[in-house]
Here is the input.
Amino acid sequence: MSFQPTTTFSGTADAGSLEVSLGPHHPSTHGVFRMNVRMEGETVVKLQPVFGYLHRNHEKIAERNSWLAAMPYTDRLDYICSGTNNWAYALSVEKLAGIEVPERAEYLRVIVGEMTRLQNHTAFLGFILGDMGAWGSALMYAFREREKILDLFEELTGARMMLNYARFGGVRCDVPKGWLEKARAYLATYPAFLDEMEQFLTGNEILLSRLQGIGVLSAERAINGGISGPVLRASGVDYDIRKVDGYGVYPRLKFRVPRGEVGDCFDRFMLRLLEARESLKILQQAFDQIPEGPIVNPAVKQRGFKPPAGEAYGRIEGPKGELGFHLVSDGGEKPYRYHVRPPSLINLTLLEEMCLGSKLADVMVILGSIDIVLGEVDR
Amino acid sequence: MSSLSPQTVLDRIHAALPQARVELVNNPSPSGQHAMLVHREDALQVAEFLKNDPELLLDYASNVSGADYPEYLEAVYHLYSIAKKHGPIVLKTRTGDRGADTAVPSLTRVWKSADFQEREAFDLFGIRFEGHPDLRRLLMWEEFVDFPLRKDYVAPDDYEYEPTPHGAIVQKAAATQA
Here is the structure.
């Protein structure tokens, strides 16, 4: 790849470039993330991400503990979406050991997983407005709704953010009495909130001019770069792991997979809004269909769990993209190899390509539109 | 998802590239994800074939991870096809040993998604990916010397410790005062 400057903002081409270190404490880097940016005038001609400020070697810690002990620690990867992190790990272990999951548990996973997606995409709306300079208002509106979902999580699991909900072959606890009705009643008010947000944001001229045509990513590059989740679909690729793999009870639930056309920041923004509406549809169906029954496979011994020797790769469609776990067992009480496929890190692979030729102020919006969490990037 | 067995893939590779050294590695797990072990000298050629063959079209290298075994280090690629919606196909390459001979070819030029992930495997396992455009440590700092995810890695008592000239200065002062 060449770093030919496209245009210079002012002066002559040999006016010299300026190198700026953005972060690790920049408020729009969503955590401790740093970018070394070289600019000609105000145009980005080179960008190098710097990782590792939040590195604690999650994988090594998981490999020295029991299989179950890694479960609460997966909460801390993408700490906005702990419900889906647990699910991905449990699903991978179930693949590794060939464990069946009872039907009710599958539905509970879908309910928690889709509520997680809903609150992630809601928070995203607030964050990206912050990245554009509209600090506060949008974020507060988004967080007001997210709080109510966290209240429901608290009632279900005892924790607002670190749910630790999935277990090998099921989930940890059943819903309290009246919880499903309460959740259903609350989520019935959600479309009105999304309409309100859309009315405030989507038609706004400043928002449109800050998002449209910025950070365009082609479908071909996105596939080659391993981009996944909403960012991949915003580039027009029809690839949703819920449809492709059909894990859990997703084949029984009707929903559409939204796609973008241009692959710019606006498509990525709109895609979250559309996906949130699809999640609401999935949730309504899950509330209708959830059967009575056991919530965990009684044959699985959670403590002292020993899967047979072998390896497996399992993945789910997380709110940020493909969250996968590559696990190797030697038949013992600890994972021999435990690897996380972090969508937040891999979605940054093409950050430089997306930013080249943009203005410095757009770099923050492009980064925000990818939607990363540093707990997962650095692990 | 349509299924694609590793044996089918292997047969296609053998038909198109008869000289390539690829073998099936049995995976006893119920996951049934049997891997294809490719000799490192043929890895790049096989990777290009897997990506471009019209029947396979494995255009999406989703996951890259390293692994440490007593005799060798292993780079594992989980490949999917977005065009054909099949996968995963597990591709493995192995180093000669865990000491001096730890090079395998980088597949970043085939799948850009391997870029950061190969850097991570280099950082934490010490697998040297030859031909990688920018093989630097990803998560640990540049000055770090060991590979933390290897099984024989011993963590230091204090990661914060840095040698300072204090000790030498105190000794010198003590010597002049004696």
Remarks:
- Chain A touches chain B through 47 residues (CB under 8 Å).
- The two ends of chain A are 28 Å apart (CA to CA).
